[in-house]
Specification:
Layout (H helix, E strand, L loop, with lengths): L3 H5 L9 H6 L5 E7 L5 H15 L3 E10 L2 E10 L4 H11 L6 H11 L3 H13 L4
Antiparallel strand pairs: 1-3, 2-3
Helix pairs in contact: 4-5, 5-6
Length: 132
């Protein structure tokens, strides 16, 4: 579902468009997170569409479990085969000690395939509470 703030952005927000953007080579990495035991059938169907491209060698997949905020979370990463290095960088970013800040937002955005100018807009909105 495209939310109103997504539609108002001067760039294409990748949410809910990950597969198509990856197949076009626009998005190098997609990340999904969920409670470890809580995958809905809808999400399972969506991930199976990605898995078909893992089976063909176009994408690589990695799952990573973490305990956070009293939950056991599962991160599911899909990267274009040539961009597989982004998975480890994202795991390192998420695990880095310290508070989440604009620098981390920028690094995450870049790993996900957003350009610098897009990250500038996102960070400005995020830091001023426009996205709340």
């Amino acid at each position: 579902m495209r939310t109103e703030w997504m539609k108002r952005q001067p760039y294409l927000v990748h949410s809910n468009l990950e597969l198509g953007l990856m197949l076009c080579g626009v998005k190098p990495l997609a990340v999904f997170v969920e409670e470890y035991e809580g995958t809905s059938e809808r999400v399972k169907r969506y991930l199976r569409m990605f898995d078909r491209h893992v089976d063909s060698g176009e994408f690589v997949k990695r799952e990573h479990a973490v305990a956070a905020w009293g939950y056991r979370l599962r991160y599911i990463f899909y990267a274009l085969a040539a961009e597989a290095w982004r998975i480890e960088k994202m795991i390192e970013l998420k695990a880095r000690p310290g508070s989440w800040d604009a620098e981390r937002e920028r690094e995450e955005g870049s790993l996900l395939g957003y350009e610098d100018w897009m990250n500038d807009i996102w960070i400005a909105q995020y830091s001023t509470g426009v996205l709340s």
